[in-house]
Write a structure and sequence with these properties.
binds dinuclear copper ion, five-stranded mixed sheet, 146 residues, 10 strands, alpha+beta, globular, single chain
Length: 146
C-alpha cells in the first residue's frame, strides 16, 4: 500500500518537474560570466558611436534646435556607419553629410536612419538641411574618418 502511494506521488511530481524545467528554459538565461554581469549594459540609445560589429557602427545623434548631440562622430576608415537621427524637441531636423548620399530628416516622433560606408579617411561635414527655426543655420557637425 505504501509502495503504491509512492508511485502515485512520483507520477504526480514528474509533470511538475518538466513544467518547471521548461519555464526555466524560456526565461532569460543568467550570464555564465559573473564578472561580465557586473558591467552595466551600454544604453543603445545613448548619444554617440556604438560598435555593432567588426567595422560596423551605429551613430546615435540627438537633434534640437541649433544643436546636434554629439556634433562630432569619429570612426576608423572602412567603417559602415548607420546614422540614427533622433529629434529631441519634436521638430523636423535634417542630417545631410557632405561627400556621401546621406540626407535624412526626422518625422517626429519617428527617427530617421541611413547607412554609409566611409572608405576614405578625412572629414565629412554635416548640416541640418531642413529649416527648423532660429538655430538652423548653426546646426552642423562632422564625421571624422581616421
Ligand atoms: Cu535643425 Cu534645421
Amino acid at each position: 500500500m505504501s509502495r503504491l502511494r509512492t508511485l502515485r506521488h512520483l507520477a504526480a511530481a514528474v509533470p511538475l518537474v518538466v513544467l518547471l524545467a521548461s519555464c526555466g528554459q524560456s526565461g532569460p538565461s543568467p550570464s555564465p560570466d559573473s564578472a561580465e554581469a557586473e558591467e552595466p549594459a551600454p544604453d543603445p540609445d545613448a548619444p554617440g558611436v556604438h560598435r555593432t560589429g567588426p567595422d560596423r557602427f551605429t551613430a546615435i545623434i540627438y537633434s534640437t534646435q541649433g544643436v546636434y548631440d554629439p556634433d562630432e562622430i569619429t570612426v576608423p576608415a572602412g567603417s559602415e556607419v548607420t546614422f540614427r537621427l533622433i529629434t529631441d524637441d519634436e521638430m523636423i531636423h535634417g542630417l545631410a553629410i557632405e561627400g556621401t548620399d546621406v540626407e535624412i530628416s526626422t518625422s517626429p516622433p519617428e527617427d530617421a536612419e541611413a547607412t554609409h560606408t566611409f572608405d576614405q579617411p578625412g572629414e565629412y561635414p554635416f548640416v541640418c538641411h531642413i529649416y527648423c527655426g532660429g538655430g538652423h543655420d548653426i546646426m552642423r557637425g562632422k564625421v571624422v574618418v581616421e
